[in-house]
Amino acid sequence: MTIEADIAALPPLKDIIRTYKLDARRKLGQNFLLDLNLTGRIAREAMINPDQTVIEIGPGPGGLTRAILMAGAKHVIAIEKDSRAIAALQPLVEASQGRLEIMEADALDVAIHECGGNDQPRQIIANLPYNIATPLLMGWLDHCKSFSSLTLMFQREVAERITASPNTNTFGRLSIICQWLTKTQHCFDIPPSAFVPPPKVTSSVVRLVPFDKPQFAAKQEQLQLVAKTAFNQRRKMLRASLRALGGQRLLDHANINGERRPEQLNIAEFCAIANALNYVGANQGNNQGD
């Protein structure tokens, strides 16, 4: 039998949940997506390369995992910390004909960028637990050259921040770092009713494709510092919100008007400020005040 036939012969996901007593647990951030049309759409949006390892975070009963395998993935590593789900996934492991590997672990503790071998790019496809989605993403972006793409589900508010443009209320630190390192695309939304149990918010699928190199020259640590400091007081003018980093002196070196507010700058301008930190830091003793 083909792998498609073997997977199609598996029990429905609701039966898997019932058999293995896999009720969703809030402390694990579990909301299971059982609609095969939607899981299939996510897998298609990911544009799976069969020659690359696909990593899934929190497969639960395996709905998205099935779709990833059906879309042609030849090596899937599913990382799951819930021992109940590990047992529930075993029939899918058997049906996968050697293509599915289960790793029992907390994704926050796993070097995802090393999974599947160090000499190949890898794809991440995941319905992320809302409570750890942003920390996971920021950690992966530290190693974004290790990934060919990341197709991820977030609550819509986070997705909007990832893809936001300057001069909008949702533009911020997450927008800057994600768009500096990757091409971001808001693919589609998924209503709460599609999940078991339904969350209180709408979810969104976002695809991020890392650039060969960042859009503009800057050190990531310095860019993150500038963005975080600026948006901690996003309603203030930059000369005030960045006072701790040099204020007007820093902005003068970057040729940025200090009366502008953080959301009015584009990514290139934030990179210019980050680079100016090198100058200001070397001359703090000679230039006091703003």
SSE topology:
Layout: H1 3-8, H2 13-19, E1 32-33, H3 36-45, E2 53-57, H4 63-70, E3 76-80, H5 83-88, H6 90-95, E4 100-104, E5 122-127, H7 133-141, E6 147-155, H8 156-163, H9 173-181, E7 182-190, E8 195-196, E9 203-210, H10 220-231, H11 238-241, H12 247-254, H13 267-282
Parallel strand pairs: 2-3, 2-5, 3-4, 5-6
Antiparallel strand pairs: 1-8, 6-9, 7-9
Helix pairs in contact: 3-4, 10-13, 12-13
Considering the chains and any ligands shown, give keywords for the structure:
290 residues; alpha/beta; Rossmann fold; Helicase, Ruva Protein, domain 3; 2 domains; two-stranded antiparallel sheet; 13 helices
General description of the model:
With 290 residues, the protein is an alpha/beta fold. The protein has helices at 3-8, 13-19, 36-45, 63-70, 83-88, 90-95, 133-141, 156-163, 173-181, 220-231, 238-241, 247-254, 267-282, and strands at 32-33, 53-57, 76-80, 100-104, 122-127, 147-155, 182-190, 195-196, 203-210. The strands form two sheets. It has a seven-stranded mixed sheet, with helices on both faces. The relative contact order is 0.11.
Quaternary class: single chain
Structural domain tally: 2
Question: What's the main sheet like?
Answer: 7 strands, mixed
Helix content: 25-40%
Which class best fits the helix and strand makeup?
alpha/beta
Radius of gyration: 22 Å
Mean pLDDT: 93
Return the CATH topology of the largest domain: Rossmann fold
Shape: elongated
**Can you tell me the residue ranges where pLDDT is under 50 for at least 5 consecutive residues?**
282-290
- Report the β-strand fraction as a percent range: 15-25%
* CATH architecture annotation name of the largest domain: 3-Layer(aba) Sandwich
**Count of individual helical segments:** 13
> What is the topology, as strand order, of the major beta sheet?
4-3-2-5-6-9-7
CATH superfamily of the largest domain: Vaccinia Virus protein VP39
Number of strands: 9
Element-by-element helix/strand order? HHEHEHEHHEEHEHHEEEHHHH
Distance between the termini: 73 Å
